[in-house]
Design a protein that fits this description.
The chain is α/β, with parallel strands linked by helices. Helix content is 53%, strand content 11%. It has helices at residues 17-21, 33-45, 56-61, 82-91, 107-115, 128-160, 164-173, 179-186, 190-204, 209-219; strands at residues 25-29, 49-53, 69-74, 98-102, 120-123.
Amino acid sequence: MPSYGLEYGTEGGTPNLSQRAAVPTVFVIDDDDLVRAAIQGMLKSVGLRSETFETAQEFLRSNRPDAPSCLVLDVRLPGINGLDFQRKLADEGIRIPIIFITGHGDIPMSVRAIKSGAVEFLTKPFRDQDLLDAIQQALDRDRAMRQQQGELFELRTRYESLTPREREVMGLVVSGMLNKQVGFDLGTSEVTVKIQRGHVMRKMQAESLAELVRMAGKLGVPPRKK
């Protein structure tokens, strides 16, 4: 049986703290005790860590690790149904890939779930492998999202290290202006602009103008008008 997502090194047979933090977790919300136990047992058999909850409220109150994760969510829950809970998570900025499971699904319900970003919509009884495949897809999606967020955070940190004038220079440079044009626009010499441009490239860790332009696009830095 393959192990899904548990790939980390060990020291003396025990993962260190940073490695444990990267271990993915599958959260399961279903008000049926037997269903929760069955899914958790299946996940354990392939080496996946999981946490189960009877209600959506219990999930929201839990302390969830900052690591790749996904949510296996029953559509029919006490207090709030799964589709409404999906919207609630989005409204609260909780971005986690969701796999819906239900014993009473229909096409409009599945279409709504998928359009709102769900990874999969499975009708009970479903094959274990179908759920495992969906979970792997969801964890891969969350890893990719976390990587993108990490890269954006790093770019923002670099951008914040720029002085106000260096940010001005960056905005003009990525708009396609030459150093002479930037200097004229800012009322400074071409030599000074060249120095400031060098500072921008170094602080942003950009190896080329094209890379700097891509960074500006990711940061949402609008090019200055010529």
